[in-house]
Amino acid sequence: MSLFGSLQTASNTLQAMQIGLQVVGNNIANANTEGFIREKVNYVPAPPQQLGNLTIGLGVQIDSITQVIDEFLGEQLRGATGDYASAQVQDEAYKGIERLLGELGDNDLSTALTDFFGSIEDTLNSVSGDALSVRNLAVLEGSQLTSEIRRIEDRAKGLRDNYDAQVQQSVGTVNQLTEQIAQLNVRITQVEGGSSSKSDAGALRASRNQAVNQLTELVSATVSEQPSGGLSISVGGEFLVFEGQRRDVAFETGDTQGESAAELVFVDTGKALNLTSGKLQGLAAARDEIVDGFREGLDEFAATLIHEFNRAYSQGQGIEGFKSLTSVNRVDSPTDPIDAAGLAFAPENGQFNITVLTEGGAAKTATIKVNVLGDGSRSTTTLAGIASQINSVDGLSASVDSLGRLAISGQSDEVRFTFSNDSSGFLASIGLNTFFTGSGSSDIGINGELNGIRNASKLALARASATEDALPSSSTENAILLAEMIDKPLESLGGGSIIERYDQLVNELAQNSTVAGSVSEGLGIFEATLANEFQAISGVNIDEEAIDMISLQRIYQATARVIATIQEMLDTLVRL
C-alpha cells in the first residue's frame, strides 16, 4: 500500500469524523426542541484494497444518518396518550358536575330540599297553621328549591354545550394536521428517494412525528409506514392519510332529544369517524354519557318531585276554597284520550272528588271518573268529557279554553270548591290546585297562584271532606302528609323516597367521579412511563453527546497526526 493510499484512508476518516461532529452538534442544538428525535451516524468500513495477496482496508465511511427511534414503543406511546387524553376530559367532566352540585357547601340542592320540606313542617307549629308569614316562607323555600334545580340544569347544559363546541372546533385542527402530514410525506419521499436511500430526512421526520402525535392525541388512529417512507393513517378502518393523499373531515349536527350533537364525519362519504380513544372520543363521552346522563337523572328526580308532590298537594285546600281555577297544563286536543293528549304526566285509571260549598252553606261532594284502561286500549275519557262531568255538578261550570286548559268556576260569587281523594293523578297531570309547575329540571317552577304573601292563604295545607265545615278549613292534615313526603316510600321509585333518589343521584356521581379519577391517574402514570422510556431512547442526552463529541475529536486529532506523519515521510522521500 502506497503512502498516497494511507493518505486517502486518513482523508476518509477525517471526512467521516467531520460529519459525525456535525450530527452531534445538531443533536445538542435541538436538545430542547419539542418532538426532535436524536440522530446517529452509522459508520461502516470503507471498501478494501487488494494488494497482491493482501486485502488492505481503506479506513471508514458513512453508511447513513438515521433517527434513533423504537417504532413499536412510539406506537404504544401514541395509544397511551390518546387514552389518557380521553380519560382526562371525562374526569374533568365529572369534577365539573360535582362543582355544580356543590354538595360540600351550605347552598347545595340537598339543603334547599330539606329546607323546603322543613318549612312545610314549620307551618304545623304556627297558630292554627294559617299564619300567612309562615305559609309564605314555605312558598319562598319552594321557589328557592326550583331555582336551584334550574340553576344546576342550566349550568350542566352550558357544560354540555361547551363540549359540543370543542368537538366542532376540532374539525379544523384535524384537517390542518392531516394536510401537514400529507405534505411532509411527499417531502420525505423526495428527500429520501423512497427506499433507495438509507438515511432519514431527520428534521422532516421529526416534524411529521410531532404532527402525528398531535393527531393521535385527538383521534384514535392506526399509523403505519410505507416502503416509500410515507405514512398511512387510518381511523376505524377508514384511511385518513395515505402518503400524499388525505381525506377532509367535517362535523355533522345530529339531534339528541331536541339538542344538537356534533360528530366528525368524512366529507366524501358522510360516514362517522369510529373513535375509540383520544380527546375527541372523551369529549363525546363527556357530552353524551356523563353530562347528559347526569341531566337525565336530575330531570327524572325533578319530574318525580313535581308529580308526586302535586298528587298529594292537589287533594288539599287553602284557608278558603276556590272561586275559580284554570289548569296550569294544557292538552293538544280536548277530544283526544286524556292519557294520549300530550300531558307530561299521564293520568291513571281512577277518580277524584270535588267538594262544593253552595250558596245555602251545604257542602256537597261529586265524583269525577277518569277511565284510563292502560292495556293498550283507547281511553274513554277526554278533557272535554271531564269538563262535561264537572258541568253536571250543581254550582259549578267547566270548559276547555282555546289553549287546551281546563277552567272551572262557581256559578255565583258565593260558591267555593276544592278537591280530594284523587286516585287517578288527573289533578296533578292537568295542573289543577298544584304547587309545582313544569315537567322536569329545565322548567320546574312554582304555581303563580301562590306568589305573594296575600296568596299564601291558598297554600293547600288542609284536607277537604264532605262535611259542612269542610269549607273553609284551618286543619293541617295535608301539611303533615306533605312534610312527610321527603322520606316517604314511593311506588314510582320502587319503594324509594325523594331524598333517597337524590342521594342516589349524588352517590352515583361521586362513585363514577372517583373511578374516572383513578383511571385518569393510572393512564397518566402509564403514559408518563412510556414517554420516559421513549425519551431515554430517542431524546438527546447532553452527557452522551459530549462523550461522542470527545471520542470523535480524539479520532480526528489522531488522524491528523497520521496525516502529518505521512507528510513527513513524503517530504523525506522527495529529498532523496
From TrEMBL:
Pfam families: Flg_bb_rod, Flg_bbr_C, FlgK_D1. The keyword Secreted applies. Residues 142-194 form a coiled coil. Residues 96-321 form the Flagellar hook-associated protein FlgK helical domain. It comes from the Bacteria. Residues 7-36 form the Flagellar basal body rod protein N-terminal domain. GO terms for molecular function: structural molecule activity. Residues 535-576 form the Flagellar basal-body/hook protein C-terminal domain. It is found in: Bacterial flagellum; Secreted. NCBIfam families: flgK_ends (TIGR02492). Belongs to the flagella basal body rod proteins family. This is Flagellar hook-associated protein 1. It comes from Botrimarina colliarenosi. The lineage of its organism: Bacteria, Pseudomonadati, Planctomycetota, Planctomycetia, Pirellulales.
